[in-house]
Q: What sequence folds into this?
């Protein structure tokens, strides 16, 4: 919510403009922004979130299907193989000393707990599991090959991470524990989930909206929706990023976990950014925006899952982007 609210982007650009005596204008037809300062000017291109044919998509134009604003960038959407194919990213990460979960083909019987996913991005929709070690991958519901190659990936229990990076600078972080409920010794899982829903905004998705995913997570923990967890037992409801089922936050202070991020995790994120920047500079010759998805396990060891070349731009990223374009201070 914070990142898709247009006024948060306008406010961030305005604050930078005032501090640096810059000029900005927006073309209401194309929604492109022109920025001028220090005898330089750039045209920034917008990106929007839309629902097209009942699927989420990032689009460059404001349409009737648009549901949110994702920011302005000095280039149009780009692609590179590491962001297009998760298996290529995992191989690249492993080759450069970055920790990534093990993976197996769809014909394997993994010897560790695993999930099943596809090699191309699917907004977390084309993911199944988790499943216990020793379970045949082929015995699970296989996923649509339209999203790339189906494969099994080692399931890492921990905290979901999304790291936003400009060039090699980590500037915005989500560190989200799994959505969970705590047993009271009296209520079933479904009743606890309903109690959770009562505390949220009416527009907030609920775990029962994805019954298959909820039941898979409960089965992994040895529970069903009608069972009563013991008092004090924590039961997690989903392991995917973005399924925390909380009311959306609207401010950077509530959205950006970077100030509270443990140093051990930040150091690993910085090391990953340095590896990827070398790859990106060789391809594009200039810094770009990208995001890294990962899981921090119980020891704060980070397992990197994938990289995204066209993520939403958190408003906190504008000073870093403008610093690269205009030579201003990143903190300005």
A:
């Amino acid at each position: 919510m914070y990142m898709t609210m247009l006024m948060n982007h306008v406010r961030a650009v305005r604050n930078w403009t005032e501090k640096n005596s810059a000029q900005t204008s927006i073309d209401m037809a194309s929604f492109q922004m022109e920025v001028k300062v220090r005898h330089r000017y750039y045209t920034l291109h917008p990106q929007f979130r839309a629902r097209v044919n009942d699927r989420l998509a990032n689009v460059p134009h404001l349409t009737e299907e648009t549901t949110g604003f994702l920011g302005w960038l000095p280039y149009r959407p780009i692609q590179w193989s590491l962001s297009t194919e998760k298996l290529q990213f995992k191989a690249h990460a492993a080759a450069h000393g970055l920790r990534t979960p093990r993976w197996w083909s769809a014909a394997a019987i993994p010897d560790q707990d695993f999930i099943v996913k596809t090699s191309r991005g699917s907004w977390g929709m084309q993911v199944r599991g988790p499943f216990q070690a020793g379970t045949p991958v082929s015995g699970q519901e296989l996923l649509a090959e339209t999203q790339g190659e189906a494969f099994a990936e080692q399931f890492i229990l921990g905290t979901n991470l999304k790291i936003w990076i400009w060039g090699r600078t980590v500037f915005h972080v989500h560190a989200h524990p799994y959505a969970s409920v705590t047993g009271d010794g009296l209520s079933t899982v479904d009743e606890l989930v309903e109690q959770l829903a009562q505390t949220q905004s009416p527009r907030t998705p609920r775990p029962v909206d994805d019954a298959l995913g909820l039941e898979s997570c409960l089965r992994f923990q040895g529970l069903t929706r009608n069972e009563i967890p013991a008092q004090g037992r924590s039961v997690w409801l989903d392991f995917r990023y973005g399924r925390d089922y909380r009311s959306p936050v609207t401010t950077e202070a509530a959205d950006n976990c970077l100030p509270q991020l443990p140093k051990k995790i930040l150091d690993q994120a910085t090391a990953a950014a340095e590896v990827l920047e070398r790859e990106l500079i060789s391809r594009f010759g200039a810094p770009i925006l990208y995001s890294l998805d990962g899981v921090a396990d119980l020891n704060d060891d980070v397992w990197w899952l994938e990289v995204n070349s066209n993520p939403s731009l958190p408003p906190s990223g504008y000073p870093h982007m403008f610093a690269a374009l205009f030579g201003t201070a990143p903190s300005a």
